[in-house]
Amino acid sequence: MMVVCAVLWSISGVTMKYIDWNPFLISGGRGLFSALVVYISMGMSHYPMKVTKKSLGIAICTFINILTFISANKLTTAANAIVLQYTAPIFVVLITVFILKRKLKAHEIIAVLVAIMGVVLFFLDQMSPQGMLGNILATTSGFFMGLVYALSGEIKDDGERISGLVIGHALLAVIGIPIGLIYTDPANITLVPILLVVFLGTVQMGIPYILFGRASVMISGVELSLITMLEPMLNPIWVALIYGEIPGPRALFGAVLIIGAVVAYTVIDAKQSQA
User: Fold this and answer.
1) Does residue 39 contact residue 166 with C-beta atoms inside 8 Å?
2) What is the pLDDT of residue 275?
3) What is the residue-averaged pLDDT of the chain?
4) What is the per-residue pLDDT across 119-154, written as a single tens digit (0 to 9) for each?
5) DSSP run (H or E) holding 94
6) pLDDT digits (tens, 9 = 90+) for 174-208
7) What CA–CA distance (Å, rounded) separates 252 from 125?
């Protein structure tokens, strides 16, 4: 289930490349259908909607995470957008250090430094104003994705955690669709992009959330994290094969550094936790 989940997540980049809409409209349309799918799944699992400070926190961070990620996909390469978003675990480390005043462990320091080197390489690979803005938005997405992880870790109630995701996607629909319609050429709102957005919301985002929720009770958190890393590795491959977009050599090396740092950190941290 987790492999299928990661593969479905990975096709977002190439799909969005074929939707000539404003990022707000793409985010809102996808959010509408993903919120419906996950909400229906909650009802089938008998989880009540819970509106709390923590679920609203997850909702707001989810809203910003997705909007900045989709915007980044329109401004920089799909590889840059997805890999920079996957700096999230590194941001989780920094968040716990600065907020909880916890000292960094040796492997955490190394992971953070290596990941920062990878991020710098991405910025050096995209020196144009548009590319730089895309990288900034992708890194911002990684930060708020890290906040989602951190907040989710503080919630023991599955219903409360999932409620936050549903509310976040619903916010994207309520805010994103009206704003996106203003800045999107009506001539581009045709059947094909509409179907692609429905596909993104249901198959690419909604169903994977359900699979992730079910898989999370069957395998360890480390296994979840490592299998999830298939997404940033596959996403640029689909875009290169189907759309013909190939990242530069610095970006590729930066991707190796970031993915390697996150994988190594996950494995070492898990081993130290078990010791």
Assistant:
1) yes
2) 66
3) 93
4) 999 999 877 899 999 999 999 999 999 999 888 888
5) helix 88-100
6) 999 999 999 999 999 999 999 999 999 999 999 99
7) 9
168, two tokens? 């976040």
Angstrom distances, CA of residue 242 to CA of 11, 15, 230, 246: 11, 10, 18, 11
**Residue 163: CB partners within 8 Å, gap ≥ 6?**
42, 47, 49, 50, 51, 52, 55
Nearest to 39 by CA among 218, 212, 210: 210
192/22 Cα distance (integer angstroms): 15
User: DSSP assignment, residue 219?
Assistant: S
Structural contact between residues 250 and 122, judged by C-beta atoms closer than 8 angstroms? yes
Measure CA 163 to chain center: 17
Task: Report the alpha-carbon distance of residue 268 to residue 275 in Å, rounded.
Answer: 11
Enumerate residues 6+ apart whose C-beta is below 8 A from 228. 2, 5, 6, 9
User: Reduced to 3 DSSP states, what percent helix, strand and coil does the chain have, rounded to the nearest 5?
Assistant: 85, 0, 15
135 contacts 87 by C-beta, under 8 angstroms? no
The gap between the terminal CA atoms of the chain, to the nearest Å, is 29
Q: Is the alpha carbon torsion for 180, 137, 85, 132 positive or negative?
A: positive
What six digits make up the tokens of 198? 């429905």
Q: Which two structure tokens, joined as six digits, stand for 151?
A: 């907040």
d(CA 214, CA 83): 25
On whether the pTM is more than 0.70, the answer is yes
- Give phi and psi for 69, each to the nearest 5: -65, -45
